[in-house]
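Query structure, 338 tokens:
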């Protein structure tokens, strides 16, 4: 007789699932260097085979599946934390598929105040990811009996008055010709605003200001900052990577960049060829629309290296073979990474 059927006849109950203090969902990781490369390697290969170890106070909770050959690994796995003592931290470590310290790609530690009461749903900046490399891990954590928090808004509105400040204190970059990007902050009204605003509505570096006082053209947005009060519609920026392949320097890139951009955030794509070049070949292979390169995208890294726009332009123009390109884009209202 089948064992499962026999147990049901005798009234044996199925084993109880341990109570979970928390449930963790690993969503995706972006920006980590490619596997099989040391942190100092400057020309990564396109294959990114990695997994994530989830730790509690040094004890392994679980390991994600290995996602192979993807520059933007994504998961839908959940992990239950069935043992937990108050005050313990959670650790997340990203490894290439070998899983040794030599394959370590970066990690982050979360303190209990970040997740224990209400849960968590946001990006975490990874540490130890290699020189000049910013990488992020997207996590969802829910306490027992709770639902996951809603995704943080990708578009929001802020109202700021100068008040006693002499200026707004925003350092902006409009070199893509479409949006004003937040490059940095000086002392002023926006720095004061950030001190009291909730995290989901604080302005951050790499945010895109898409309108100011309902004006949407670049020139009109700039003019609005002469007024004593501004209402800004802001889109968060997100970064992803793609792999381009170019046979030799005689092969056109198929991309056009600003003629002379010396400073700012990233190298904007002004236009690209729809008939030839690595960008067209890459777009033709994409299965999701959000993965495709677009006009106004900003290149923030080439072959594992970052730099000023003129440096990035030179790296793009001199790149051959397979090379990784980091792209920065405004996170639109439509859902991505799906």
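Result returned for the query:
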């Amino acid at each position: 007789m089948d064992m499962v059927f026999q147990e049901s006849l005798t009234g044996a109950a199925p084993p109880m699932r341990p109570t979970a203090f928390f449930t963790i969902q690993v969503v995706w990781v972006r920006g980590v260097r490619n596997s099989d490369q040391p942190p100092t390697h400057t020309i990564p290969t396109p294959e990114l085979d990695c997994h994530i170890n989830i730790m509690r106070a040094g004890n392994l909770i679980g390991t994600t599946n290995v996602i192979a050959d993807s520059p933007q690994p994504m998961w839908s796995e959940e992990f239950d934390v069935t043992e937990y003592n108050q005050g313990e931290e959670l650790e997340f470590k990203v490894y290439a598929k070998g899983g040794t310290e030599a394959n370590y790609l970066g990690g982050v530690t979360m303190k209990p105040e970040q997740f224990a009461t209400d849960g968590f749903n946001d990006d975490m900046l990874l540490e130890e990811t290699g020189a000049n490399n910013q990488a992020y891990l997207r996590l969802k954590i829910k306490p027992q009996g709770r639902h996951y928090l809603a995704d943080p808004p990708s578009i929001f509105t802020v109202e700021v008055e100068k008040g006693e400040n002499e200026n707004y204190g925003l350092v902006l970059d409009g070199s893509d010709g479409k949006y004003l990007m937040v490059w940095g902050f000086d002392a002023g009204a926006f720095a004061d605003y950030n001190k009291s605003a909730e995290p989901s509505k604080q302005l951050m570096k790499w945010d895109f200001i898409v309108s100011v006082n309902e004006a949407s053209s670049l020139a009109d947005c700039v003019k609005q900052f002469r007024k004593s009060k501004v209402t800004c519609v802001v889109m968060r920026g997100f970064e992803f990577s793609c792999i381009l392949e170019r046979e030799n320097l005689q092969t056109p890139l198929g991309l056009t960049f600003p003629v002379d951009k010396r400073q700012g955030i990233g190298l904007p794509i002004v236009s690209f060829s729809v008939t030839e070049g690595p960008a067209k070949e890459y777009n033709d292979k994409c299965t999701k629309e959000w993965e495709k390169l677009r006009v106004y995208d900003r290149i923030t890294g080439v072959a594992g290296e970052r730099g000023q726009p003129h440096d990035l332009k030179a790296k793009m123009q001199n790149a051959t073979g397979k090379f990784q390109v980091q792209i920065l884009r405004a996170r639109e209202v439509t859902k991505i990474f799906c």
